[in-house]
C-alpha cells in the first residue's frame, strides 16, 4: 500500500485530524466544501483494477437547497434580523462496523452550521454512492439550546460481545456540554451531560477508550478537551438499556492554551492519553479495574516542549504506534517527532523520528517529481516545494498511516506561481518488520478468533497483504499451518445451548469455529493474490495449494459444526412444536440429517445426534425413518461399510415438475427431468426462489429466512457461515 502514488484531493483540509480511517477500510478527508472518501484496494476482483483507489466525494453543494444555508435569527439589534451561514463541513467521525447499518461503517458529519448528519454507502451499487441516512439535528430540539451548537464528534468502539455492535456517538458543544446518541438505546433521544461547570469551556476534541466489562454493565472513558485549555475524563456506563455519565477529574486548570490534537491508545486495561497544546505535548497513563476508580498511574503528566513553529497550531496530526509505546507527531510545516517515555521523562526518539522523516520525505518528493514531469518543466532538477501536513490516521490494523498533505511549490522563473495541490498518501510503520508483524498478527488474529464477526475482516486482509508483500507468502503458510494446529488443539468442546440463542451468536462465540472460518477466509484471499499476480505480491503454487487443502478441511469441519448446532437446537423443541410441522418443514429437517450420513464421518459425535432425530420422527408418528435407522445400525456393527447416495429416500419435489430430487450433491440438485437447482449451503434445500443471500467473498449462497423450523435458529445469521463476510 505504501508503494501506491498519492491521490489528489480538490481542497486542502482546515484542521487537525482532518483525515480518518474506518474499520472497513474507508478513508475520509474533510474540507469545508467537500468530504473525499477513498478506498485503498488491497486485492482486485476484475482485470486492471489492482491497486485502484475508489474516489468518492460528498459535496456541500449536493445537499438539498434547504440544507445548504442555515438561517440564524438575531433579535438583539434592529439592523440585522437574520443572516445565513454556509452549511459546509466542519468535522466527521466513522462508526464501528455494524453499529448503525449491518456490515458497514456510517459517517457522522458535523457541518459548519452545527447540523449533525449520518451518511451511508448505498447497497448494491457498482460505484460508491453515499446518501444521507439520517439527520440527527432535530433530536436537539430548538436551535437555540446550548447542546445544538455542535463543534466536534467521536464514535466509540463497539461494545464487546454485543450482537448489535452497539456504540455511542459523542457530540461536543459549547458551555462544556456533551451529547450521547446510540442507535440501539432509544435512538430518538439525545442523552445530554454537562462535563464541568464552566461557561467558557467549549468542547472541541473528543476521544473514546475501548469498552470494559463492569459489575453493572459496560464502561468506557470519554476524554474531553475544552477551548479554554482544560481536559476531563468522563466515565460513560451502559446498563439495563440506559446511559449514565460521571466526570472523574479535570486537568490543566491554569494552562489556557487550547488543545489542538487529542489521541488515546486502545489496548487492554491500560490506555494512554496524549494532548497537544501549541508546541507542548502531554502524555498520561490510566488503568481500568472492574469495580474500582480509574487509576491515574503516577498521578502525573509527562510533558515536553518541541522546537516547532506556530504552524503546528491548527495544522497537524498525531498517531500512536501499534504497540502504544511511541507517539508519532507531525507538524504543519513538515516536521515530525516520535516521542517515548524513558526514565520518567518524555523524550524524542531520534532513530524512529529520522526513519519516519525519511519515509515521509520519499513519499512527498516522489509526488513533487511526478508533478514536475506532468508539467513538462524543462529543468527536472528544480523540484523545490513546501509540504504542509494536515492530518494522519492509522489503518484498521496499525500497519499503515494515511497522511493528508499539501504541496506548495516555491515560486521561481521556471515554476511560476504554481497553485497549491493537496494529496492523500500512505506510509508503512517503521518498526522492525519481524517485531511489528508478530505484534500485529497476534493482536489481530486473537481478536478475530474471540469475536469471529465480519468487522475484523479488513484487518485480516491488510495483514495478509503486508506479510505477502514482504516475504512472498512464506509467513502466510506458517500462519495457516499454525491455525490448523490451533484448531486441532481446541478439539470439539460440547456446545451449551440456551433456548433464546441464535445461530450466529453461537458460531461467533466459538474460538474453534472462528479459527476454521479464518482458515477459509485467508485461503479465499490467497487465491485472489495468486491468480491476479498483484505487483510485489508473489504467492507460490505450493502455498496456494496448501492453503486450499486446509481450507477444504476447514469448510468440512465448519459444515458439521453448523449442522450439529442446528440439529441440537431443533431437538430442543418440545413435542407439540414437532407435531405442528407440515410435510415440507419436516422434509427439510430430514434432508439436513441425511446430509450428515453422506458427507460427514459417522463417528461417536455424529451417530447419536442423527439417530436421536430419526427416532424422534418415528416415535411421534410423523414419518417412517426405519430404513435410515437400520443403515446406521449396520454401519455401527460393520455389516455395511458406508451409506451411499442411492440408499437414501429423496426428500424434495422439483419446483418445476414435482419429481423427487435425489440428494446427489452438496451444492446442487438435479431432478429426473434434468431441472438444475443450486442448494442452500446451510440447510441443503434447493434454491427455488430469487430471495438468496450470496457471500461476496466466497460466493456461498443461503436461502432467505422464511417461516418454518429454521426461522428462529437462522434469524440473526447475517454473515457468511464460512468466511464471516456480510451478505
Write a brief structural summary.
This protein has two domains: 7-72 and 88-431, YVTN repeat-like/Quinoprotein amine dehydrogenase (Methylamine Dehydrogenase, Chain H), CATH 2.130.10.10; 434-496 and 503-651, no CATH class. With 727 residues, it is of the alpha+beta class.
Provide the fold topology.
Blueprint: E1 7-9, E2 19-21, E3 27-30, E4 34-40, E5 53-59, H1 65-68, E6 69-73, E7 82-86, E8 89-94, E9 107-111, E10 116-121, E11 130-135, E12 150-155, E13 169-173, E14 177-181, E15 191-194, E16 203-208, E17 212-213, E18 218-226, E19 231-239, E20 242-251, E21 261-264, E22 270-277, E23 280-287, E24 295-296, E25 302-305, E26 317-320, E27 326-331, E28 335-342, E29 345-348, H2 350-375, E30 385-394, E31 400-409, E32 421-428, H3 433-451, H4 457-471, H5 474-490, H6 503-508, H7 511-532, H8 541-571, H9 575-579, H10 583-599, H11 607-619, H12 626-637, E33 652-653, E34 660-661, E35 668-670, E36 676-678, E37 692-694, E38 701-703, H13 711-714
Antiparallel strand pairs: 1-32, 2-3, 3-4, 4-5, 6-7, 8-9, 9-10, 10-11, 12-13, 13-14, 14-15, 16-18, 17-18, 18-19, 19-20, 21-22, 22-23, 23-24, 23-25, 26-27, 27-28, 28-29, 30-31, 31-32, 33-34, 35-36, 37-38
Keywords:
727 residues; Methylamine Dehydrogenase, Chain H; 2 domains; 5-stranded antiparallel β-sheet; 13 helices
How would you describe the overall organization of this protein?
The protein has 727 residues and is an alpha+beta fold. It has two domains: 7-72 and 88-431, Methylamine Dehydrogenase, Chain H, CATH 2.130.10; 434-496 and 503-651, no CATH class. The protein contains 13 helices and 38 strands. The strands form eleven sheets. Strands 16, 17, 18, 19 and 20 form a five-stranded antiparallel beta sheet that branches. Strands 21, 22, 23, 24 and 25 form a five-stranded antiparallel beta sheet that branches. Strands 1-32-31-30 form a four-stranded antiparallel beta sheet, covered by helices on one side. A hairpin with a 7-residue loop joins β23 (280-287) and β24 (295-296). It is elongated.
Amino acid at each position: 500500500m505504501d508503494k501506491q502514488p498519492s491521490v489528489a484531493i480538490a481542497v486542502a483540509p482546515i484542521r487537525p485530524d482532518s483525515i480518518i480511517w474506518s474499520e472497513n477500510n474507508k478513508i475520509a478527508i474533510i474540507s469545508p466544501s467537500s468530504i473525499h472518501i477513498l478506498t485503498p484496494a488491497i486485492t482486485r476482483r476484475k482485470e486492471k483494477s489492482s491497486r485502484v483507489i475508489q474516489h468518492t466525494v460528498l459535496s456541500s453543494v449536493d445537499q438539498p437547497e434547504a440544507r445548504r444555508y442555515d438561517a440564524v435569527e438575531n433579535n438583539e439589534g434592529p439592523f440585522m434580523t437574520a443572516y445565513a451561514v454556509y452549511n459546509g463541513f466542519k468535522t466527521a467521525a466513522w462508526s464501528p462496523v455494524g453499529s448503525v447499518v449491518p456490515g458497514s461503517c456510517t459517517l457522522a458529519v458535523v457541518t459548519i452550521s452545527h447540523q449533525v448528519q449520518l451518511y451511508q454507502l448505498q447497497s448494491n451499487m457498482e460505484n460508491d454512492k453515499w446518501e444521507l441516512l439520517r439527520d440527527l439535528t432535530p433530536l436537539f430540539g430548538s436551535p437555540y439550546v446550548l447542546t445544538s451548537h455542535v463543534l466536534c464528534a467521536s464514535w466509540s468502539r463497539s461494545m464487546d460481545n454485543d450482537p448489535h455492535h452497539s456504540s455511542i456517538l459523542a457530540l461536543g458543544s459549547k458551555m462544556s456540554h456533551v451529547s450521547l446518541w446510540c442507535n440501539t438505546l432509544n435512538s430518538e433521544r439525545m442523552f445530554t451531560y454537562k462535563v464541568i461547570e464552566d461557561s467558557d469551556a467549549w468542547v472541541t476534541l473528543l476521544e473514546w477508550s475501548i469498552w470494559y466489562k463492569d459489575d453493572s454493565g459496560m464502561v468506557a472513558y470519554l476524554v474531553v478537551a475544552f477551548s479554554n485549555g482544560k481536559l476531563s475524563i468522563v466515565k460513560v456506563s451502559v446498563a439495563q438499556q440506559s446511559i449514565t455519565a460521571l466526570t472523574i477529574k479535570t486537568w490543566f486548570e491554569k494552562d489556557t492554551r487550547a488543545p489542538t490534537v487529542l489521541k488515546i491508545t486502545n489496548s487492554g486495561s491500560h490506555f494512554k492519553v496524549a494532548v497537544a497544546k501549541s508546541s507542548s505535548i502531554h502524555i498520561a497513563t490510566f488503568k481500568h479495574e472492574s469495580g474500582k476508580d480509574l487509576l491515574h498511574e503516577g498521578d502525573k503528566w509527562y510533558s515536553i516542549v518541541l522546537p516547532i513553529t506556530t504552524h503546528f497550531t491548527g495544522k497537524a496530526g498525531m498517531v500512536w504506534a501499534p504497540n502504544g509505546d511511541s507517539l508519532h507527531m507531525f507538524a504543519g510545516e513538515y516536521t515530525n517527532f516520535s516521542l517515548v517515555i524513558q526514565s520518567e521523562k518524555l523524550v524524542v526518539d531520534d532513530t524512529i523520528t529520522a526513519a519516519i522523516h525519511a519515509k515521509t520525505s520519499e513519499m512527498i518528493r516522489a509526488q513533487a517529481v511526478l508533478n514536475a514531469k506532468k508539467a513538462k518543466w524543462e529543468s527536472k532538477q528544480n523540484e523545490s516545494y513546501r509540504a504542509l501536513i494536515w492530518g494522519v490516521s492509522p489503518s484498521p490494523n496499525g500497519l499503515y498511516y494515511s497522511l493528508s498533505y499539501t504541496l506548495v511549490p516555491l515560486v521561481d522563473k521556471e515554476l511560476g506561481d504554481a497553485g497549491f495541490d493537496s494529496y492523500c498518501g500512505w506510509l508503512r510503520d517503521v518498526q522492525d518488520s519481524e517485531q511489528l508483524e508478530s505484534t500485529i498478527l497476534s493482536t489481530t488474529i486473537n481478536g478475530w478468533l474471540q469475536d469471529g464477526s465480519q468487522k475484523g475482516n479488513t484487518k485480516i486482509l491488510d495483514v495478509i497483504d503486508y506479510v505477502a508483500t514482504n516475504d512472498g507468502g512464506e509467513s502466510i503458510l506458517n500462519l495457516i499451518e499454525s491455525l490448523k494446529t490451533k484448531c486441532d488443539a481446541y478439539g470439539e468442546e460440547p456446545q451449551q445451548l440456551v433456548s433464546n440463542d441464535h445461530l450466529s451468536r453461537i458460531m461467533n462465540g466459538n474460538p474453534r469455529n472462528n479459527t476454521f472460518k479464518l482458515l477459509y477466509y485467508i485461503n479465499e484471499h490467497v487465491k485472489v493474490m495468486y491468480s491476479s499476480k498483484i505487483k510485489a505480491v508473489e504467492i507460490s503454487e505450493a502455498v496456494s495449494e496448501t492453503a486450499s487443502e486446509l481450507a477444504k478441511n476447514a469448510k468440512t469441519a465448519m459444515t458439521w459444526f453448523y449442522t450439529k448446532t442446528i440439529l441440537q437446537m431443533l431437538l430442543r423443541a418440545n413435542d407439540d412444536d414437532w407435531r405442528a410441522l407440515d410435510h415440507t418443514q419436516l422434509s427439510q429437517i430430514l434432508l439436513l440429517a441425511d446430509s450428515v450420513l453422506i458427507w460427514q464421518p459417522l463417528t461417536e459425535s455424529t451417530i447419536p445426534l442423527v439417530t436421536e432425530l430419526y427416532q424422534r420422527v418415528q416415535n411421534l408418528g410423523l414419518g417412517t425413518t426405519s430404513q435410515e435407522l437400520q443403515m446406521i445400525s449396520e454401519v455401527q456393527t460393520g455389516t455395511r461399510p458406508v451409506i451411499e447416495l442411492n440408499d437414501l429416500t429423496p426428500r424434495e419435489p422439483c419446483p418445476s415438475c414435482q419429481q423427487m430430487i435425489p440428494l446427489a450433491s452438496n451444492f446442487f440438485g438435479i431432478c429426473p427431468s434434468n431441472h438444475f437447482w443450486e442448494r442452500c449451503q446451510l440447510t441443503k434445500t434447493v434454491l427455488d426462489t430469487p430471495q438468496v443471500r450470496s457471500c461476496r467473498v466466497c460466493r456461498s449462497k443461503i436461502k432467505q429466512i422464511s417461516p418454518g423450523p429454521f426461522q428462529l435458529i437462522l434469524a440473526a445469521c447475517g454473515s457468511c457461515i464460512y468466511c464471516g463476510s456480510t451478505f
